[in-house]
Each structure stands twice: as structure tokens, then as C-alpha cells.
Amino acid sequence: MAEPITIARPYARAAFESASAAAALAAWDRFLSRAAAWVRDAQIEPLIGDPRVPPGQLIGLLQDLAAAGVPEGADGAAAGSGDVAPGSAPGRGGGAGGARAQPALSAAQLQEEQRNFLALLAHNGRLPLLPAIAVQYEALRAEAERVADVQVSSAQALSAEQAATLKSALERRLGRAVRLHESVDATLLGGAVVQFGDFVVDGSLRRRVERLAASVTGG
């Protein structure tokens, strides 16, 4: 059976192509991350796939909730079988790299495209994949905009100066704009671990202790 990330891929690409063609990358990013948070909400999740809930009603509810924001305490999108038929991509066609961007959509047109996308997911039984779709869409957008989303885990929260220095150094190293996603991990003891895709710098004190222990034991 295909992994969720594999099943989600064509949907993320379809959403990205529609958003790119309509110059609405940020709007679609916001919509997908919010919808992804709602499908994991304790009150909404049981409604998905419930035969007693009319699909149109569920789609309308999800769209309204996504427009309003995210559930209290949610952090946005979590982290795909090509059952998206050719030509079934939501809204306008055209890839990010080839088609000329069309005039920006009106709010009503954008909402209609997003509703059609939710309807496609519901029809194919793929609404639970929205978190994976949102994550992959964000990666496609970041690549198109030459932005690197870098994960930074540190033993203590970075100061504004430390974050700015690290960001500047990473932008020189990676050759693109950098967005830092910071988290605190007390088990690192000190220092930080920086990761962007396969690029990893482990400058944690824990790692230094492990290397020292290995050298002492001959491991």
C-alpha cells in the first residue's frame, strides 16, 4: 500500500500549480495549513468519512473553519498513487515554471477553487491527507521562492542576535533566503543542531560528549 506522503504528492502539486498560475501562493499556503489543522481537530476528525454527514456540508464547514483560523492550540500543518486524474487539478492549469501567471483571482474565485479542491479530496477519500499535502505544498512553494526552511534545535532558546547571525551564515552557505524554525531540546545539553534536508550540522554538546565517550572506549 502506498505511503501517505506518496499519495499526497499529486494533490500538493495540483494545488501548487493552481496557486502559482493565479499568483496566490501565500493564500493557498494559509488555506492548506489551516484546513490541515482542522481535519486533525478532535471534533472534526470523526465527521470525515461518516456517511451521515453530507459531503457538501462537510466541505463547506472545513472551508469556513479554515477561513476563520486554526483550532485553539494547533500549530498549523503537520506533516501520495496518482488518483488525481489529468485535468482534475483545482482551478487553472499551468505549472510554476512554465505558464505565465494569470491575473490575481478575486476572493470569491479563490474560495471557489479551494472548495473544488476540498471536493476532489472528499470524492477520493483523501481529506485525512491534508496535513501531508500542506507540508509538501509548503516545500514546493519554498523551492519556487528560493527559500530554505531550516530546523534549529538548541539546548536554550536563541537570542535575537544569535538567530540573526545563524540566519546570515546559513544564507551565505545555502545561497538562498532562510526561514529559521526554532525549537528547544534540553537533552542537547548545549549548542545546537541545524538541519535543512540532507544538510545537517550537529554542534550540540551532547554530540561532543558522545564522540569523547567513543574515543575513550575505542568505539
Description:
The protein is α+β, with helices and mostly antiparallel strands and 219 residues long. The chain folds into two domains: 4-85 and 101-144, Peroxidase, domain 1, CATH 1.10.520; 147-217, no CATH class. Helix content is 49%, strand content 11%. It has seven helices and four strands; from the N terminus they run H-H-H-H-H-E-H-E-E-E-H. The chain has a four-stranded mixed sheet, with helices on both faces. The longest helix has 18 residues, at 4-21.
Defining traits:
single chain, 219 residues, alpha+beta, Peroxidase, domain 1, 2 domains, 4-stranded mixed beta sheet, 7 helices
Write the layout of secondary structure elements.
Elements: H1 4-21, H2 25-39, H3 55-68, H4 107-123, H5 130-144, E1 147-154, H6 160-174, E2 177-184, E3 192-196, E4 199-202, H7 205-217
Parallel strand pairs: 1-2
Antiparallel strand pairs: 1-3, 3-4
Helix pairs in contact: 1-2, 1-5, 2-3, 2-5, 3-4
In the CATH hierarchy, what is the architecture of the largest domain at level 2? Orthogonal Bundle
Helix content: 40-55%
General form: elongated
Q: How many structural domains can be distinguished in the coordinates?
A: 2
Rg measurement, Å = 21 Å
The CATH fourth-level homologous superfamily of the largest domain: N-terminal domain of the delta subunit of the F1F0-ATP synthase
* First and last CA, distance: 40 Å
Stretches where pLDDT falls below 50 for ≥5 residues?
Answer: 76-101
Question: Biggest β-sheet, characterized?
Answer: 4 strands, mixed
According to DSSP, the number of beta strands is: 4
CATH topology of the largest domain: Peroxidase, domain 1
The CATH first-level class of the largest domain comes to Mainly Alpha
SSE string, helix = H, strand = E? HHHHHEHEEEH
Helix vs. strand class:
alpha+beta
**Average pLDDT:** 83
**Portion in beta strands:** 5-15%
Q: Which sequence of strands runs across the widest sheet?
A: 2-1-3-4
The helix tally amounts to 7
